Amino acid sequence: MQYFPIANEDERERHWREQLRAEGFDVVEEYDPSAVIVTIGGDGTILYAARRYPDPTILPVRAGTSKGNRAAFDVEELLGKLTRLEDGRATLTSRSFRTLTACGDGKQLTDEFRALNEISLHHQSPVLAATFAVRIDDVGFSRRFPELIGDAVLVATPFGSTGYFKAITKQTFTDGLGIAFNNIHTPEETPEMIRCSEDATVELELLTTKRSSGAVLTRDDDSAPYELSAEEVVTVRAGDRTVELLDIE
């Protein structure tokens, strides 16, 4: 088995590449789709790998002060776990997650706008709310919110339901998609969340920036959001790429 270690710190990444190679493990210098990406850090390192590499297979490992809620185990256990795996004394378990994708006018947004956690429309101004519309189409039902005034709306995956989605709704989920509405001022009867299937499509539209905040499209913890124009429509849906997370037992 080949391994491709990446870390949330350059020195940590160099150390573990050298350490694994010194222990006799097959470490590749460049990403290979057949290799297991060993993410050494926290959940942010997992999200980076999911954005950076197509259809990755990831073994998440906690390191440093990172909480790493999705990490399988701590970095101090890595060598022992891999040794037992290579010796046949341990087995791999896996779970696959589909990523989200966002398109405008039928085309992928900049830099293949994909996410493992969530994609959200979020207001830009610290003092003004955004005015936007949300249209949800799913198998057997549809919902229309022609004008909402508030801070954000997000579409989350089961993987991402433990993050921003949970902060808004105090809930998580294990299948389908979740749509959460954050601090909606008008209309007051807007639900806090809507659950839908993995086949749903969600259209987000920034309606106006007059006397309202502009808005950006954000994904996961990426620091480079996509700035929306007034009346621009973005469609969010489950994409065709998956992320496989491993554990060693």
TrEMBL record:
Coiled coil: none
SUPFAM superfamilies linked to this entry: NAD kinase/diacylglycerol kinase-like (SSF111331)
GO molecular function: NAD+ kinase activity
Gene Ontology biological process terms, A to Z: NAD+ metabolic process; NADP+ biosynthetic process
Origin superkingdom: Archaea
PANTHER family xref list: NAD KINASE
Protein name stated in the entry: Uncharacterized protein
Source organism of this protein record: Halovenus carboxidivorans
